[in-house]
Give the backbone structure.
Amino acid sequence: MSHDDPFAENPILAELVEPAESAQMDPWGLGATIMLSLAVIGVFVVLQTAVVIGFGAVQSLDMLHAGDYDWGRLSHNGLLLSVATWISAPLCLAMVILLVRLRRWPSVHDYLALNRVSAKCLLFWTTMLLVVLALLEATPRFLGFEMTSEFMVDIYRTAVFLPLLWATLIVAAPVFEEIFFRGFMFRGIQPSRLGTLGAVLVTSFVWSMIHLQYNPYGIFVIFLYGVFLGVARARTNSTYLTIGLHSLINLVATIETILRM
């Protein structure tokens, strides 16, 4: 009796017993990625809005009848920002993971580029970021205007519980935003006709547009940071790296705010 594998010479049978070889290995396409990303952003906005309404209701029980209620100040409330972020970020992150699983990608970590980098790589990109931070810090002074963000000052003064705000800026926001923008969105855009450059620019633009609480120059700076993070993501295939770099950006911005208050 022959002990040869009967499936080896029959590709049809081999495909039946080894379905993993023919499993879906393509990420969500460009159109699907954009639509699903908009859905995630929509859910994020709805959750944030619900928290704002609840927070406003606590502060003003008759707000629905008070036409002079200052809703604008809520967007600069540090405690509200922290609570809203810690509610919306984990839920939207779970939504992103679900979307990856629905695509039947073999590994969520691989789809979202949750890959480690070497110490040498981390040191290189950290050094490069510090150079970029220094340049962006020097530019406003050279042009003769102040870089201090009124938004950052306001949220720090209204944080109530500072450790929560620090955790929001340095942990929650970078983790969610990097996994979503440089992870999920980047993965779906890069293989498309837009390519790597398109993935870097599109994710940077959308990322900057969710930071409309800053002034125009601040939004432009955020776009530039997005380009830097996108390049780092493209070169290293690691959102772990961009999470760390994003955290460093926020850490430096927070320390600068404290020093200028």
